[in-house]
Structure formats: C-alpha cells, structure tokens
Specification:
This protein has 123 residues and is mainly alpha-helical. It folds into two domains: 82 residues, no CATH class; 40 residues, no CATH class. Strand 1 and strand 2 form a beta hairpin. The model has no long low-confidence stretch (mean pLDDT 81). InterPro entries: Cyt_P450_sf. GO terms for molecular function: heme binding; iron ion binding; monooxygenase activity; oxidoreductase activity, acting on paired donors, with incorporation or reduction of molecular oxygen. Keywords: Membrane, Transmembrane, Transmembrane helix. This is Cytochrome P450.
Length: 123
C-alpha cells in the first residue's frame, strides 16, 4: 500500500487547520485574561518576544495589562506571563508540585542535563 504524497500533505494541513480552529473558538480557562492582540495565528507572539531584547515587549504589556498577561503561542494556544510576586511565590514555594512541567520540557531537560534535581518531579 503506497500513500500518495499530495493526499497525505492535504490531509495533514486539513487536520492541523481543524485543530487550530477548534482551539481558537473553544476558549479556555484563561481566555478571559487580558493580553495584547497577536499579529500571527501560526507564531502568535513568539517571534516578537524571541527576536527582541529582553523586556522590550514585557514591560509595556505589564503597564497596559497588569501583572498577569495572556499571550498567544503556536497556532493560537494561550500562555500566561506572570509578574505578580504573590502569584510567583505561591507557584514556586507553596505548591510547586501542583504545577508540573510538560513532558516535552522534561524530556528536553533530561536530554540536555540527565536525570538531576531540575528534571525530577513527584508524580
């Protein structure tokens, strides 16, 4: 059984488009949090943040939207930027085990540094 490459590409594009549209219109737990408008649905704010000096976007956004900001990541996924000291203290000191690392981040840390304290988590 051989697969036709154009059909495979078209099916992949259609699947990714359906997933992206579903995520865009579904909303989410953080969809009510204010944040800047994104110029790109595919890259979100990641190009702006990645190719600018540290703080060029964060500080004006913090002045406009406050200490909790919703930004867009790849394909319209919502991400949070926190700069509230109380929220950060809660996350890092009080309930760090409630905020587990994504599997991709754990795999990357394990690949780069091996099984160490940063990689480990309590399930």
């Amino acid at each position: 059984m051989s697969l036709n490459l154009p059909v495979l590409i078209a099916a992949s594009v259609a699947t990714l488009s359906i997933i992206a549209l579903y995520k865009k219109f579904k909303g989410g737990l953080i969809s009510y949090i204010r944040g800047p408008k994104s110029n790109s649905f595919i890259f979100g704010h990641l190009l702006e943040i990645g190719y600018s000096p540290a703080g060029d976007f964060h500080f004006p956004w913090q002045d406009e939207f406050g200490s909790v900001i919703r930004i867009k990541a790849l394909f319209g996924a919502d991400k949070l930027i926190l700069s509230d000291p109380k929220a950060l203290q809660y996350i890092f000191h009080k309930s760090a085990y409630s905020f587990t690392k994504p599997n991709a981040a754990r795999t990357l840390m394990h690949t780069m540094d091996g099984p160490d304290l940063v990689w480990s988590e309590v399930p």
